[in-house]
Amino acid sequence: MSLFARLKADCAADWQAYTQHPFVAGLADGTLAEAAFRHYLVQDYLFLIQFARAYALAVYKSDTLADMQSAAETMNGILNTEMQLHVGYCAGYGISAAEMEQAPEAAECTAYTRFVLDAGMAGDILDLHVALSPCVIGYGEIGARLAADPATKRDGNPYLSWIEMYSGDDYADVMRGAIARIDRLGTERLTEARYERVSRLFATATRLEADFWSMGLDADG
């Protein structure tokens, strides 16, 4: 079993709670309150800023030039492409970049992003990518599942574009690349004695991702 598959299997309950969270169900059937989604969008912008820092750390933690280049490319993509796409998407909800930049970070956003950075600072490149993986891989899995589910609402669903974004070919490539990276790093660096720590990192990051969904629902409530 590959490392990512093993982590996911050993964290099955937490992974299901994250990927099948009520927030995700609301995206699928279009019933998620707009206020909840708007709050999520603002926090996701702040989240991306911290994730760019995580990939900058991945450059430093990498052992090979190829891994440094890959991490730098991802960081550049976040800062110069993904964030601009996010700004354009949020403009459709009347949310400006200035408004998002001035918004305070929610505790859930701070908790997850600083956990990722701490995991990378205290550990190595494998620890960092394991902590990143519930976000990078989980969104792709969620998008693919919702897109393939006939119960997902298409007509009149205000969140269909979000589902299409994370179920598209471009993001599927990102997800597959992240899985391959973790599996390769596991082959290079993982020992059975170390697995328990890596598994705890993955489980905690997965729960923090679920908390990020809950944050939006709490904001609406």
Describe the structure.
By secondary structure, this protein is an all-alpha fold. It has a single domain (3-220), classed as Heme Oxygenase, Chain A. It has 11 helices and no strands. It has helices at residues 3-10, 12-19, 22-29, 34-61, 65-91, 97-102, 107-122, 125-148, 160-167, 169-189, 192-220. Helix 2 (12-19) runs parallel beside helix 11 and helix 4 (34-61) runs antiparallel to helix 5 (65-91). The protein is globular, with a radius of gyration of 17 Å. It starts with a helix and ends with a helix. The mean pLDDT is 95.
Task: Briefly say what this structure is.
This protein is mainly α and 221 residues long.
Could you spell the SSE succession in H and E letters? HHHHHHHHHHH
CATH topology: Heme Oxygenase, Chain A
Which of globular, elongated, flat, extended, rod-shaped describes the shape?
Answer: globular
Q: Number of DSSP strands?
A: 0
Total number of helical segments?
Answer: 11
User: For this structure, what is the CATH homologous superfamily?
Assistant: Heme oxygenase-like
Largest sheet: none
How much helicity do the residues have?
A: over 70%
Total domain units: 1
Question: Class in CATH?
Answer: Mainly Alpha
Structural class: mainly alpha
